[in-house]
Design a protein that fits this description.
6 helices, globular, 16 strands, alpha/beta
Length: 391
């Protein structure tokens, strides 16, 4: 009897212990299987739950046109995807939280982009998503399928105002090379939660960008599984948070296959009262991922008092036969030596600070190979810096 009571007590206690590791999180296509998020869960404790609350409601979208979608792609790339059981949809995507399960359920038809096998698309495929109503909830499920030995770039551009829950399912088949850039240039009242899940095949590569500049609350969480031998992923992020903005990314990189390589670099700048960024980076090197090489880093530059940057890198290694693995995180203010160097050459303090911030963020911007997007981001960063005040 005593042993039974102890076992029951331990089971009850374990049931109350929050799941800490990313690989252990439950998945479900049914929103009811996920409780309403609270600050108790490790994946929600740093999020702005109050402003994200509309995305926790499992009801039909309030307006079918709350977010309009425009696709600019070569003929045959945008293919039909009707119904929750449409081909390819759900091949790799498994909702890990309530908003992504709602987005799955309420987006009966997916936007499916199929990049043709063996072809190189010289021009990027562009998907423009524009919110038309800041008070209306909307959802979307997007499938990006890079067929074997294809080479392409897909740009997802978000503008306007909306309450938007979104899934992005990315399949990079053997030998393919895919770049996906998600640009959040929302108006100041938009609320956006997105789950990006990707699987990369044998000798294939994925370059993934998350660029968040606009929106009241933006939460874009990329998850990448390097499943094939010799697969490779580079995950880059850039954000600039102003007063009252909450910009968040929780990154998961799972080295599953042997001889895989991964590199994660996210950078943020923050200015203004209650400007906040959140970055959580989880890397798992699985038991079969021998000869893996992995590194993740997050850098944050706090420009004014009242701003806050949370940065949590995590690394799990299940095999001792790796080429290398590491992680780093740094949050701070201006480098006094850099400022002194610039000011000693006759550059004003305000201009010196502008140059330091610009140089800090350009490391990410310069990696973007789409010329007009890169130029637009430089202009956007410059516009942010024009409002920077010298303490």
């Amino acid at each position: 009897m005593t042993e039974t009571l102890i076992a029951d007590a331990l089971a009850a206690r374990q049931a109350d212990v929050p799941i800490q590791t990313r690989s252990a999180r439950p998945t479900s296509f049914e929103p009811a299987d996920f409780a309403a998020p609270s600050a108790r869960e490790v994946n929600w404790k740093l999020s702005d739950l109050q402003r994200l609350a509309p995305l926790f409601v499992d009801e039909p979208a309030e307006s079918a046109r709350a977010v309009t979608v425009e696709v600019d792609a070569p003929a045959g790339v945008h293919v039909p995807s009707t119904g929750l059981d449409a081909p390819v949809r759900g091949e790799v995507f498994r909702p890990e939280d309530r908003p992504s399960a709602i987005a799955w359920k309420r987006s009966e038809d997916a936007l499916h982009l199929r990049l043709p096998a063996g072809q190189v698309l010289e021009q990027p495929v562009r998907v423009r998503l524009h919110g038309t109503d800041a008070t209306a909830r909307s959802t979307a499920h997007i499938v990006i399928e890079a067929e074997r030995d294809s080479h392409a770039t897909v740009v997802l551009e978000h503008t306007g105002s909306a309450q938007f829950a979104q899934n992005v399912e990315i399949i990079v088949r053997d030998g393919a090379s895919l770049t996906v850039l998600s640009l959040q240039a929302w108006e100041d009242d938009a609320v956006h939660a997105a789950a990006h899940q990707a699987v990369v095949g044998r000798r294939a590569s994925l370059t993934h960008f998350v660029v968040s500049l606009g929106g009241a609350v933006v939460r874009v969480n990329p998850s990448v599984r390097l499943a094939g031998e010799g697969s490779h992923a580079e995950l880059f992020g850039l954000s600039f948070a102003d007063s009252g903005q909450h910009l968040e990314s929780q990154v998961y990189l799972f080295h599953e296959g042997p001889a895989t390589k991964g590199n994660v670099l996210y950078k943020s700048a923050l200015q203004g009262a209650k400007a906040r960024t959140v970055w959580i980076g989880d890397v798992l090197i699985g038991a079969d991922a021998v000869d893996t090489d992995s590194y993740e880093a997050n850098r944050n530059l706090v420009l004014t008092d009242g701003a806050r940057a949370d940065s949590i890198p995590n690394l799990e290694i299940e095999t001792g036969e790796i080429a290398g693995a590491g992680h780093a995180s740094a949050t701070g203010r201006f480098d006094d030596e850099q400022l002194f160097y610039l000011r000693s050459r006759g550059i004003s303090e305000k201009e010196s600070r502008r140059l330091v911030v610009l140089g800090f963020l350009m490391e990410i911007v310069q990696k973007i190979a789409v010329d007009d997007v890169r130029a637009r981001l430089i202009d956007a960063v410059e516009a942010e810096l024009a409002t920077m005040e010298v303490d």
